[in-house]
Amino acid sequence: MEKVQLQIADLGVEQELEWDIFDSEGRLLIKKGMMLHSAKQIEKIINMPAFRYDDSPSTIEEPTNDILDVLSPFDRITEVNFNVESFLTQIISVKDDQKINLADDLMNLCDEIIALCEYDLDALLGAIHLNEQYRYTVSHPLHTSVFCYMVAQKLEMDIDKTVCLVGAALTANVGMMELQESLNLQTEPLTGEQREAIFDHPKQSALMLKRVGVRNKLWLEIVLQHHEQISGKGYPRRLQAEQFIREARILALADRYHAMVSPRAYRDCLLPTQALKRLFKDCGKEIDETLGLMFIKEIGIYPPGSFVRLKNGETAIVTRRGKDNMKPTVKSVLNSNGAILYEARTRDCNEKRFEITGLCPPLKDQQYDLMRLWDYVV
Q1: What whole-number distance in Å separates Cα of residue 94 and Cα of residue 109?
Q2: Which of 197, 203, 215, 250 has the fewest C-beta atoms lying within 10 Å of its C-beta?
Q3: Which tens digits make up the pLDDT trace of 165-215?
């Protein structure tokens, strides 16, 4: 079994790996079939150095943690945000008489987001609650798509429907994207014209998607229905109960939750627990009760990215959901005196001194290294 050191020419961006990749001690780094997403990742692997075997060992263990940062979801999320913004801008710019087909590209983007969710959903949920560097009109559809995936996974939804749901989440508001930009900075009440545009945007979004080649009926119907309510008081068609398809109900509650935990010029964001309480209050009225309760249970009382106070007085960030909603994995970032800890410390909430006593507001003007918080460090 010959050991061969990898060279740059052996690896390509967005190409499935032809072999299992190992470090110099024979530990598995990356499994065959996975993809590298940037030249930076390739450079890291080459510099390790890394190797392949003509015939891989018969027993393959899980990848070693030494390579986790190479395949970190945070290494890719900025580029995904850029791609989302690029596609939404293209959709808006296409004229009625133009023949541009973006359907396949949009499907590929959905596949990429699903792959990120499958790789580390807790890390993505954490990034959503902690990261505010992207424009709302871009972060909202992307983050909503992650919440939709979370529910679809819990429901064991088939992949075709999941892709449609994620795609609908990404594109549902494209019909009012330009208006949304100004509304995020507006402190005055809505004008009549703005209200009409908001009411009409599901139809406009669907028309714009058809214009760029999206023909999937489920995708388009989710977009059309994402502001309907089971009470029949939604828009644009005032659908009630079972007329309102399940996939659109999922997007409706994901859309509502993310809007509440996102800041605006005219208001601060709600803490995750406050937003979840509002969702609970709306269950059976404006949102589907079964799906709403499932969403609340799945994301947890203390979602990843939440700031919590521990019994010993420390302030910590939730990094992983736990089997017990009251006992997630957390990392302390402030000591009991309120001083910043140089290195975030993992705390076991099963220990009495590290029990969570409640949520606390995010720390303002404080940046956190997501790679370190979620242990993606070489």
Answers
A1: 19
A2: 215
A3: 999 999 999 999 888 878 877 778 889 999 999 999 999 999 999 999 999
Residue 240, class by beta-carbon neighbours within 10 Å (0-12 exposed, 13-18 middle, 19+ buried)?
Answer: middle
- Euclidean distance between CA atoms 307 and 244, whole angstroms: 35
At the second CATH level, the architecture of 74-299 is Orthogonal Bundle (1.10)
CB 41 within 8 A of CB 71: yes
CA–CA separation, 376 and 361 (whole Å): 25
Q: What is the C-alpha to C-alpha distance for residues 16 and 26, in angstroms, rounded to an integer? A: 21
Helix ranges, 172-191 (H): 177-183
**Residue intervals in the chain for CATH 1.10.3210.10:** 74-299
Sheet containing 315-320: which strands, arranged edge to edge? 340-348, 329-334, 315-320, 307-310, 356-359
Give the DSSP per-residue string, 195-208: HHHHHHHHHHHHHH
Q: 286, 257, 255, 252: which is closest to 274 by C-alpha?
A: 257
